[in-house]
Amino acid sequence: MVNRSSEISGFYKLSVEERLKLLGSFSDLTQEELEVLRMHGSLNTELADKLIENVVSTFEIPVGIAPNFRINGKDYLIPMAIEEASVVAACSNAARIARASGGFVSESTEPIMIGQIQIVSYDSFEKLKNVILEHETDILKLANTRSKTLSSMGAGAKGIEIRTLEDPQRSVVVHLLIDVRDAMGANVVNSMCETVASYLEEISGCRTNLKILSNLTPHRVSRCKAIFRKDLIGGENVVDNIISAYNMANVDPFRAATHNKGIMNGIDAVLLATLNDWRSAEANAHTYHTLTGNYSLTRYSKTPDGNLLGEIEIPIAVGTVGGSTNTVRKAAIFRKILEVKNSSEFANVLAAVGLAQNFAALRALSSEGIQKGHMSLHARSLAASVGALNEEIDLISDTMVKNGTISMSKAKELLEDIRKRTNK
Ligand code: MEV
Fold first, then answer.
1. What is the pLDDT of residue 42?
2. Residue 174 belongs to what H/E stretch?
3. From ligand 1's centre to the CA of 55, what distance in Å?
4. Which of 15, 37, 169, 377 could bridge to 85 as Cys pair (CB 3.0-4.6 Å)?
5. Is the distance from CB of 359 to CB of 94 less than 8 angstroms?
6. Cα of 259 to ligand 1 centre, how many Å?
7. Among the atoms of ligand 1, which is closest to the Cα of residue 245?
8. How far apart are CA 195 and CA 328, in angstroms?
9. Are 20 and 316 in contact (CB under 8 A)?
């Protein structure tokens, strides 16, 4: 029988094989899929050579699972590919706390992307604007010839915006507003822009330059909230400290960069595990403040009973169709584990992960600091990197943390000691 609860305490204490067994049961994985996860690589150089240019090898990165997530009443196990210790643990822990108050409530707007066409030479702005608006219906019709699929779904190019810029050429920019449904949308948006640009030149005599999607997607935004109970996070004092940390991030760009980086630790890790474009997600998130005026993508306040209400508003453009997920077997299996049915559900999950990650960071920073947890995980990874195995890793990392010296040379020394004692 398939076990559908993602609430798993002590997941971190299990062996990799035990975790795979649980995962197999939760996500209904076949023996063959589990075997693919056990092997070291599912991307061979022949396939890699078709994905990008000048291939010489492929690259591995750890993938962990964050349990405990409940989002809009549904349980998720979240695959996260990341090289940084603490991120998966922090995310799982935050999800466990949010779960105690019912989990995350997340929603996403319609998937409207913006395609930009830059017009660099024209006679009069008013004349240009009027010509474009007079031809709006034809422009949208022409754009929609580039995607029969979107048109058949009643989606595709829906509207136009015209902006003027303060650059030296006083560029006029035409925005095509395009409903891309379950795609990330880059290809279709770019194709529509190129087609429409030639038509704009034809009807107005103007000259166009750039024709490309915008990675800033203010019409494609996800919002998520959760309550973190004060008794589970160290009391009302921690609630106040988290609110104070958020207030700082919202006005200070130096803090905001780190604060939002923490949010993207989680979101990027999920995007990477499922082989999605995390650079566009980064660009989108980090430029959103230019439109909202709020540096922080999250917001915290106190509920009447003194608990912490966490909220995130973040532009997210991800797809569940197209892209390269399906070309790489492991990415496809991680998508199966994530089990999102469409781009809006995917964005809802990412927003929840971003909020969880940010809450976890602020909680640690507002109480014991992040170094304590971080250093013990760092100690484990140092122990592994000098060749320690199984219980040797625990022994070495526990000793280093206890003695306060966490370094590669210390890990080596301790490993030599252990092996001398056990004659290995
Ligand atoms: C580290 O990768 C992320 C944090 O610095 C985020 C934050 O400071 O909010 C812990």
1. 83
2. strand 172-179
3. 33
4. 377
5. yes
6. 6
7. 9
8. 32
9. no
Q: Is 266 in the pocket of ligand 1 (CB under 6 A)?
A: no
- How far from the centroid of its chain's Cα atoms is residue 132's Cα? 37
Instruction: Enumerate the active-site residues.
Output: 84, 261, 277, 374
| Residue ID of nearest Cα to ligand 1 atom 9 | 259
Ligand 1 pocket, residue 262 CB under 6 Å = yes
Write out pLDDT tens, residues 42-87. 899 999 999 999 999 999 999 999 999 999 999 999 999 999 999 9
- Total-model pTM: 0.90
Fold of 63-107+220-369: 3.90.770
Distance CA 322, CA 150 (A): 13
Residue 1: what pLDDT? 41
The residue type at 424: K
pLDDT digits (tens, 9 = 90+) for 262-318: 999 999 999 999 999 999 999 999 999 999 999 999 999 999 999 999 999 999 999
Alpha-carbon distance of 363 to 242, in angstroms, equals 6
Residue range 112-214, CATH number = 3.30.70.420
Domain positions in the chain are 11-51, 63-107+220-369, 112-214, 372-423
Amino acid 30 reads T
Check: CATH 1.10.8 for 372-423?
A: yes
**Ligand 1 within 6 A of CB of 361:** yes
| Alpha carbon of 174 to ligand 1 centroid (Å) | 38
Strand 63-71 relative to strand 112-121, pairing = unpaired
CB 187 within 8 A of CB 322: yes
DSSP-assigned letters across all residues of 221-273? EEEEEEEE-HHHHT-HHHHHHHHHHHHHHHH-HHHHHHHHHHHHHHHHHHHHH
With a CB cutoff of 8 Å and minimum separation 6, the contacts of 30 are none
Indicate which atom in ligand 1 lies nearest the CA of residue 265: 2
